[in-house]
Amino acid sequence: MRRLLRCAAVLAAGLGFGLAFAAPASAAAPQPIAPNELSKATNAAHSSSAVQLLAKVPGAAGKAAASVGSDSHAVYALNPAFVRDASAPVATFWYAATGASKGGQALTVFTAPDSRGVWQPVNVASGNTEARMATAAGGALLFTEPQIGAWYALTADQVRPLNPSAVKSIGSKPIAVTAYQKLVSQRYADKLPGSTYNESGMAGGYDTAAVVKAPTSHSAYLVPGVAASGVLMLGLLLTVRRKMTYND
Fold first, then answer.
1. What share of the chain is helix, strand, coil (3-state, %, to 5)?
2. How far is CA 144 from CA 92, 167, 175, in A?
3. How many whole angstroms separate alpha carbon 56 and alpha carbon 69?
4. Rounded CA gap, 182 and 83, in Å?
5. Span 145-186, pLDDT tens digits
6. What span is annotated as the signal peptide, if there is one (predicted)?
7. Cα separation of 55 and 63, whole Å?
């Protein structure tokens, strides 16, 4: 049974995020992260801490020099509050993704603000899923339903599928935000924190203590011991990506 995962709102609350970009612009969508914040995310992806994370990538690319891109993409995740209440933001900020490469291998550096609002690198994953999905979103807000590995583009009133898992979830055409809320409510409402399903400890519950599983097209190379405790928590929550993980 697929384990259902903690989403961004719970994560943000747990880490004490208080940044201005977390406030919703409307009932349907969170306010996009300001360009200056994404610039900070990009800088964090180029930091010495990020270089250390990239140095831990195993395999043939392990000893090659890494190159980190200049564009970072904000990734949002399905908001548990939206599952309960259609007036809540559909998604909340999860992490920023910056493309990188090493020895011909495509990689992605994850960054997130710590409890002080300082952006930190928290993980390195193989592949370029976020960059591809951001391109497919075409400027719309990019969010994922990580429980099923689905990626969507969000506008004020529509949710558009971006990958096969999303098409399987909502169909091949965009659907109204209200229709998506009904769908995820049916899918997860009885599995949210406080539900009988969750309290009973059933595997697969939409559990605030569950390990976050990132999109299935990635593998992760998590390096524990990042500076800030909040960032370390996020890193640990991002540990499981597909089958292959790495810890030193």
1. 35, 25, 40
2. 10, 13, 15
3. 18
4. 8
5. 999 999 999 998 999 999 999 999 999 999 999 999 999 999
6. 1-22
7. 7
